[in-house]
Amino acid sequence: MSWQNQRIDMNVYSQGEIDRWVYSTCNLCSIGCGCEIAVKDEKIVGIRGNGNHPINRGRLGPKGENQWQANNSPDRLLSPLIRSEHGELVPASWDEAMELIVSKMKEALANKGPNSISIYSTGQGFLEDYYTIAKVGRAGLGTHLLDANTRLCTATTEFCLLQSFGADGTPASYDDVDETETLMLFGHNVAETGTVLHERIMDRKSRTGKPYIIAVDPRKTLTVRGADLHLQLRPGTNVPLLNGLLNMVLQNGAADQDFIAKHTIGFEEMRDVLEEWTPERTSEVTGIPVETLKEAGRVLSETPSLVSTTLQGAFQSADATAACVAINNMHLVRGLIGKPGCGPLHMAGQPSSSANRTAGGVGTYPAHRNPMNPQHLEEMAELWNVDVSTLPAGPEKGIEEQLEMIEQDQIDIFWNIGTNPLVSLPNRKRAQKALGKVFVIMQDHFLTETSKVADVILPAAMWGEKTGTMENADRTINLLRKAVEPPEGVRTDLDILLDFAKRMDFRDKDGNPLISYSTPEEAFEEWKEISRGRPCDMTGITYKKLEDHNGLRWPVTDDRPEGTVRLYEDLKFHTTADYAQSYSKDQFTGRPLTHDEYADKKADGRAILHATRYNPPSEQPGGDFPMWLTTGRLVWHWHTRTKTGRSPYLQAAAPHGYAELHEDDAREHGIVEGEVIRITSPRGWIEVPVKIGDAVQRGLIFVPFHFGSWESNQAANELTADFVDPLSKQPTFKQSACRIDKLRKQHLVASGETVGYIAEQYSMSVDDLLKVNKMETPYGIQIGQQLEVPISVMNVPVQPYMPQRTDFKKTPIEEKDE
């Protein structure tokens, strides 16, 4: 492992000694840090890192250190709520709420059938919950409309893996990050989105000088500061960049021809598409200098090992799946997969979004089974003891497709579990209008923006108040033990689902209850049998083993009792038609292929190289909207701040939304630091203060998406387009068109007024007043002259974050700049 020493990060607030420490795992980002929960007087009072956990050796990020505070928030939901005939949410008993839900479900099934019901869940739940959603949804209700906010976050991870390797499951692991000579962080601002993993990387680099880090990002992020080479590309040009780099690898003679011949198909078609992407053409499209591209091409050609990570910068961009497939192509062409220090590590955003995909709570069936494969449906029918004809089949439908179905009156019920779509979905006014048409069940810890459209709200238990497992980004299954009982009136997600199944009287074909388990561990034991023989086989896992080993990476079997560090070490891929998780899709159009089309490829255990063609973003700057808009996360907050916004420390670090603007654009517009501007897109507008610098490119505005109350007009997703990637159906949050509108009032200069006097009246500096009015000096103003004054100037107190807690002042990039 990379870490040389433990460091136990701790955040505890307790009068006197705590009563006990309870084994758990962090429930925020996807890194999967081991931790222990502090309990005093049957309340959670803090957290500390688990020094024995190999992922973090006791370290925690700022969000992880403060996640427990939301559990004690005074505005926790403690009773179900039902919307009254007067339109108000009023308290109700659990029986009243559940019986209303059951009656609505039965009505929808009778009137429109199973696919009039959608279950939309989270990436922060437990594998046992997701498996139960799969069973309740498909074998109970018979609906195929299961999706989650993972569609917005990391759906592209799954689809690029299906395209190239035949099944989900990222090939490399964090152990490979510890060993690799070269690390390419592609659209992955790991310093802010996975702070402990970034510290792990930089800890090794500070000791050994390795790995060589290539950071690909249109912004100069904190991650970029620690990189050796920054590829600052224009928005929406991921595929041209990767095609250009891969073409250079081929031109440099660095392809592993023996590996390509034995273990891949599709090389010739892929190669033909790359030929146009010369360094000059790639530079023209991406904006990256030719010499910088050639240096990246040289490194990628010569490195003996390579790990490539991806996150939202890749997943939420135009041609997301094509870009991630191109990264897979790079590894396959170089033969850098299935061995130490090598492989793509397509990340997850949320702590357990990977488990949702694995357990079948979203598009495909449990344990990586293909919903278009009759043999896989027969397997599930036998395992669940149901009639196969009752199981829904065919391609999955993502949330954006489901919104279209709602607009077409095809869906009547939307069960929203643990997520806040009316902040997180793109073009959120459209989403609000659509969800306002259907019966919405909301299962959450707090009232959120989505409460506005909810008809029934069910109060759910939080982290530390329930037991279960999660799967982090590198396939590690982690255990979380219950530390305290949930507040009175609150139930776990699993208990709510089990109660629903019982009230609906779901039965198997022998007349027995469809769901026979009653505890998380019993659910996991059933799940293990579902996973047997599949790529994610977990038959060798028990709760005790997970605690004893501090997590295990699947597959875990009798042959691999301590798990699997990396996939495909035998260079046998899951591409045999009858075993594959998917028949894949047409790489350009996204059309699902048939069994015969997939079988005709004759991959039969070999990886598939795909041609990756450039398709520019559907929306481009121009006309009334001349600038690019992109969105992203901050180190201090998680998604829509439902939990992190209730931590005093995290909220104080970043209390409100803002926009980043390049200093040249600010100068051109006469905009000053902290000035509140209006940003308008074809879909809506927001008003936020400005941070000015060189973190973003000219012509690009960055807005964090965490802030989204209906009253504050700071929600980035008022602006974002709802175009989706043709394969993964993931929205392209990263590229929308927008414009800046200044919000100003006029000041008429009176006799005796000076610039200094006027600036003081508006609590501005003289320098800022001059910038706003594009004046060179404070002299020469005239009586009756009109000066512009911003209607509001705010401090933007985003606290800087130093991820290393060690000397991070000198980095290779800073030294070059000097």
Compact summary:
The chain is an alpha/beta fold. It is built from 30 helices and 29 strands.
Structure description:
It is built from 30 helices and 29 strands. Strands 6-5-17-16-15-7-8 form a seven-stranded mixed β-sheet. A six-stranded mixed β-barrel has the order 22-26-23-25-24-27. A five-stranded parallel β-sheet has the order 11-10-9-13-14. A hairpin with a 4-residue loop joins strand 18 and strand 19. The model is unreliable at about 805-818 (pLDDT under 50).
Q: Which short descriptors sum up this protein?
A:
single chain, 818 residues, alpha/beta, 7-stranded mixed β-sheet, 6-stranded mixed β-barrel, 30 helices, disordered C terminus
CA radius of gyration is 27 Å
Instruction: Work out the helix count.
Output: 30
Main beta sheet: 7 strands, mixed
Helix content: 25-40%
Strand order of the largest sheet: 6-5-17-16-15-7-8
Spatial separation of the terminal alpha carbons: 34 Å
Number of strands: 29
Q: Choose one word for the global shape.
A: globular
Beta-strand proportion: 15-25%
Whole-number mean pLDDT: 94
What are the segments in which pLDDT stays under 50 over at least 5 consecutive residues?
806-818
| SS class | alpha/beta
